[in-house]
Amino acid sequence: MIKQVAIGFLDGVDPIEADRWYFRYHYKECLRFFGPWLRRYESYRAQEPPPEAERFGVRRGRLTELWYDSIESFIEAKPFSWPFTRSSFTRVSNNAQPAAGAMVPAMPTEDFLGKAPTPEERPILRWVCVFRYPEGVSLEDGEKWYLDVHSREVAQQPGLLKYVSHSALKDSPMPSPWVRVSELWYEDFDAWRKANIDSPPGFTSPPWADSEPFVELASTFVRYKPDVDFLKDNPLIP
User: Fold this and answer.
1) What is the reported pTM?
2) Which of 59, 76, 96, 136 qualifies as a cystine partner to 12, CB 3.0-4.6 A?
């Protein structure tokens, strides 16, 4: 199973205007056009980040995930070829950033901690990051640093509850420059700040950079559960 991940969808658009377009037109057309191929279609409103997160390419708007059985299902669905309604969105989308994302296996390709808390027993803040290595850095060299060095040091963060990563599909039918989607769980922003700002482990710099975040990064903060499950919910239009 695979999933299409979009970080910062509708970032830069007034949240009320964005949801009116999304709930009134876009998700309904997605379900009409290629809903039979979707296994999950969920959207998370981004949490307002602390100022310290800005250097990590933080995005607002929404994190949206669309799950399919396989690459073949995605190709058959042709999700980008349908006549979506766009005129109603033009007025509010002038300042929107393009979403950053990739197509990845639904299950993580790496689990760096091998454990996770029970979300029902404590609050969960998910920090979802999509990244690529700088121009001139080969995928092989970037992955060697990330998997053999950086991920092991990040895993030592105090208060880190879960740390997984998805390597982008190499045969993806949706070309993207982003090579990984990683996800880190904390209890709240105080725990995130303590782990990443106040007392982070010392990180070994790669040959191509001497300061964080070391890679080209887009990230967002969301809660554990989506605020809209489009296959089950009928969201109210604000």
Assistant:
1) 0.93
2) 96
